[in-house]
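User: Um, any thoughts?
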Amino acid sequence: MGKRLFDIFFSLIGLILLFIPFLFIAILISIDSSGGIFYKQKRVGKDGVDFDLLKFRSMATGSDRSGLLTVGGNDSRITKIGYTLRKYKIDELPQLINVLSGEMSLVGPRPEVRKYVDLYNSEQKTVLSVKPGITDYASIEYSNENELLGKAEKPEEVYINEIMPAKLKLNLKYIAEQGISTDLKIIFKTIGKIIR
């Protein structure tokens, strides 16, 4: 099975199975705070092309105008239901729609905003040679990224100088090892991480 067929099959199955839970989550979001159910953010995809990444909205509407990074429990912009959605990565599930439409893959380097992609060196730009994904090695390793940033005196400096380069190294590792078996291994590791 090719990667695209793999993505279509499992994203479609996921969307069908999660249809009722999605409706329930949508109701909780609308009760919890005013604004839309989904949050769209421009991210950089394969070959440097921008696309709209979908998430369940977990922050107050317009929060991204005061900064792109979230800093764990210290971030007052996150809604009550948003904390739970983020903790269990539920806010990321609408990206199955991005996968089905071909903008993303189930597994691949997490897509970044243009502001940070513009800081990549030539080697790091290799991550743009493949489709971005919902999960990857870096997502597993840095599942507590928000908490790390929450403890930092200067979160954006820590992200740019420490976390982002480390994540990009893991992205390059994925590209070197990519294949269906690697994707399955990462998916199972991601599920295990969320459960733990």
User: Anything to note?
Assistant: The radius of gyration is 16 Å. Residues 3-195 form one domain. Residues 10 and 106 are 8 Å apart (CA to CA).
